[in-house]
Design a protein that fits this description.
The protein has helices at 19-30, 61-70, 83-90, 99-106, 108-117, 131-141, 168-174, 231-246, 281-284, 289-297, 324-329; strands at residues 11-15, 34-39, 52-55, 73-76, 125-128, 145-149, 159-162, 180-184, 188-198, 204-206, 210-215, 218-224, 251-260, 265-271, 311-317, 334-337, 348-355. The chain is an alpha+beta fold. It is globular and about 60 Å long. The protein starts with 10 loop residues before the first strand and ends with a strand. The structure holds adenosine monophosphate.
């Protein structure tokens, strides 16, 4: 098979207008591509740095068709783009990742079953369609359990911890009685993630496993590489490559995992797009994750995923962004700001990378 490379000067279409799209657009520009953002929000970090911007709903078929006519390849920076939108676009232009990867990541139940099917261990889980299912999960898995909506959860939103049967009714109401899953609670010591990339030729490369530290369910810091994982690092990278292969997807797949006290890997969730835990690659890997995605989407061979220097990434949340002059003054800090004007509490405004 001959590799079909889409040459520089061509246009990469990106679904989603957030910071991941912005950094993908910047990486695309570095390789001589133009980008066209499709997003429903009027002001978006990605459209600020893109060649073209379509502001339309993901269900707007004429807008999607016009977008497809204007681009040479399509990727996503947001996994909750409706599957139907990507299915439609895939008939018109290469869509990388494919709609199956998106659909799998959009539903926690489908996602967990898929990840188990490729060899990951997961916490015990079951589908929840009403309070009686929650009571059953409490009984079978033991207290506590975590109830999560199957769809649209992020940064700890759409999830609630349940410790006793008296919490069940309130928890079900809190999640809006949405179809959910109940999970056994994992007593983990650390959270890690691996990002794998797969190109059009089916070649796979993974970045080293990293450790992620959260505050209030939001990623605060990533340590690259994760220290002292021993054989678990290889296992995590191998399973991540099985997961990306099994979906036959072209692009990036990030997998979040827990490490337990007895040194086991328990998978949490996946994202078929660039990932916050890969931002350190912008300054400390041979190829940054955003360039890697552009390479995948444009049919280019993968770049090296080698780490250049142990590093740490820290997210800038909410009004911490006002501290930018201090960060800028530190010669060891690589500062990346997303150009967001409104600094809501907990909102990701930027990040900085530093050698360890
Ligand atoms: P998620 O939205 O699934 O990424 O979950 C957000 C955070 O909640 C994770 O990063 C963990 O810190 C915690 N968490 C999620 N699921 C579990 C679980 N089954 N057991 C213990 N902690 C969990």
């Amino acid at each position: 098979m001959v590799q079909q490379m889409i040459p520089p000067g061509s246009v990469l279409g990106i679904l989603g207008g957030g910071q991941l799209g912005r950094m993908t657009a910047l990486a695309a520009a570095n390789l001589g591509y133009r980008t066209h953002i499709f997003a429903p929000e009027k002001d978006s970090p990605a459209s600020d740095v893109a060649w073209r911007f379509t502001c339309a709903d993901y269900n707007d078929q004429p807008a999607l068709e016009a977008f497809a006519a204007n681009v040479d390849s399509i990727t996503v920076e947001f996994e909750n783009v409706p599957e139907a939108a990507l299915t439609l676009l895939a008939e018109l232009k290469p869509a990388r990742p494919n709609a199956r990867a998106l659909a799998t990541a959009q539903d926690r139940l489908v996602e967990k079953k898929y990840l188990e099917s490729v060899g990951f261990k997961a916490a015990p889980f079951q589908a929840v369609d009403g309070p009686e299912d929650i009571l059953k999960a409490l009984d079978v898995f033991g207290s506590p359990i975590i109830l999560k909506t199957r769809r649209f959860g992020y940064d700890g939103k759409g999830q609630v911890k349940i410790t006793s049967s008296s919490d069940v009714k309130a928890a079900w109401a809190e999640l809006g009685q949405s179809p959910s899953i109940a999970e056994g609670f994992v007593n983990f010591t650390r959270e890690i993630s691996v990002i794998s990339a797969r190109d059009v030729m089916g070649k796979i490369k993974s970045y080293p496993a990293v450790e992620n530290r959260h505050e209030n369910h939001i990623l605060r810091q990533t340590i690259a590489p994760a220290a002292e994982l021993g054989k678990l690092a290889e296992e995590a990278e191998y399973l991540a490559s099985q997961a990306i292969e099994g979906l036959d997807m072209i692009g990036l797949l990030a997998i979040e995992m827990f490490v337990t006290e007895d040194h086991q890997l328990i998978v949490n969730e996946m994202a078929p797009r660039p990932h916050n835990s890969g931002h350190w690659t912008m300054d400390f890997a041979a190829t940054c994750q955003f360039e890697q995605l552009v390479r995948c989407a444009m049919g280019l061979p993968l770049g090296s995923t080698q780490i250049l220097r142990p590093a740490e990434m820290t997210n800038i949340l909410g009004d911490e962004v006002t501290e930018w002059p201090k960060l800028l003054a530190d010669p060891n800090v690589h500062l990346h700001l997303y150009g967001k004007t409104e600094a809501r509490t907990g909102r990701k405004m930027g990040h900085w990378n530093k050698a360890q």
